[in-house]
């Protein structure tokens, strides 16, 4: 089971504002906050997300084919997460809508460092 995922950033303060807004919509706040790493989630809850400056001191880069999926509670929340992401400097990778079979509904976006995320529901 995944405990948390971490994405890299080259500007922790700027990136934190993006994730504060997105994670706030998901009902979670910061659970760890250090000079080079911030994590959002609930200890003992579902998987959290972390934002970090790379440990090796090199610039953060985006993994080709890497994506973090954020589970929403309904289609309206998928829309709100997408809107929040774009309003906070994120870029569109695919607006909200059905994907593949009718049971999967998602919106795709990138954070300020180019990390790809989606908000989705199944069922």
Automatic annotation (TrEMBL):
<dbReference type="InterPro" id="IPR037523">
    <property type="entry name" value="VOC_core"/>
</dbReference>
<dbReference type="Pfam" id="PF00903">
    <property type="entry name" value="Glyoxalase"/>
</dbReference>
<dbReference type="InterPro" id="IPR004360">
    <property type="entry name" value="Glyas_Fos-R_dOase_dom"/>
</dbReference>
<protein>
    <submittedName>
        <fullName>VOC family protein</fullName>
    </submittedName>
</protein>
<feature type="domain" description="VOC">
    <location>
        <begin position="1"/>
        <end position="122"/>
    </location>
</feature>
<dbReference type="InterPro" id="IPR029068">
    <property type="entry name" value="Glyas_Bleomycin-R_OHBP_Dase"/>
</dbReference>
């Amino acid at each position: 089971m995944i405990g948390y995922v971490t994405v890299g950033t080259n500007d922790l303060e700027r990136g934190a504002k993006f994730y504060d807004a997105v994670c706030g919509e998901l009902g979670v706040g910061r659970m760890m906050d250090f000079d080079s790493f911030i994590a959002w989630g609930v200890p003992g809850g579902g998987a959290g997300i972390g934002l970090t400056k790379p440990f090796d001191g090199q610039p953060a880069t985006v993994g080709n084919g890497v994506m973090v999926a954020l589970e929403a509670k309904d289609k309206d929340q998928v829309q709100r997460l997408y809107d929040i992401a774009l309003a906070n400097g994120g870029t569109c990778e695919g607006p909200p809508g059905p994907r593949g079979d009718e049971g999967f509904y998602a919106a795709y976006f990138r954070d300020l460092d180019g990390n790809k995320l989606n908000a989705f529901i199944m069922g």
